[in-house]
Amino acid sequence: MAKQDKEPPLPGFTAPHRLLFVGTYLCYIAVNTAPNALMPATKAALGLTSGDVAFIGSWQTIGLAFGKCVWGGWPADLFGARRTYMWTMLALAGAVVLMPAMTTEIHLAVMLMALELVSTPAMPCHVRWIGAWMPPEA
Question: By the 8 A CB rule, do 120 and 71 touch?
C-alpha cells in the first residue's frame, strides 16, 4: 500500500498563529458589536434622544457602506492579508482608545463611522486565511 504524501503545512499558519487569529477575530467582533449593544447605556449617560441615536446609526451605516464599496478587499490584495490585518487591528485599537472621549452625538457618530470604515478590510483578510488553511481538495 502506497503511503500518501502529506502536504507540508502552510508557512506561518501554526497552531499558535491560528489561536492568535481566532483571538483577534473575537476582539474584532466585540469592537464592532459593542457600540450597538451599549447604545441604551450610552443614550442614558449622554442624555441622547431617540433621534440622536438614529442619527448615530445612520452615520455608522454610511461608514459601513463606504467601506464595503470603496475600501473593501483591495488592501488585502495589494499589501497582503497579514499586513492589512495588522494595520486594521491597530486602527481599531486606536478607535477603541478614543471612544470614551466622545461626549456628543456628533463625535460618537463620526467615531462609529470611522470604526466601520477602518474595520472593513478585516473580513477579506479572514476569508483569505481560512481559504489557505482549508484548500480545496484536488
Answer: yes
Q: Which residues contact 45 (CB under 8 A, 6 or more apart)?
A: none
Predicted confidence (pLDDT) per residue in 10-30, tens digit: 555 677 777 877 887 787 788
Q: For position 8, what pLDDT does the model report?
A: 46
Query: Helices 81-98 and 15-37, interaxial angle, to 10°?
Result: 40
Which backbone phi and psi does 43 adopt, to 5 degrees? -60, -45
Angstrom CA distances, 112 to 8, 11, 36, 85, 86, stand at 42, 36, 10, 19, 20
- Cell numbers found for residue 55: 442619527
> Residue 103's Cα: distance from chain center in Å?
24
pTM above threshold 0.90: no
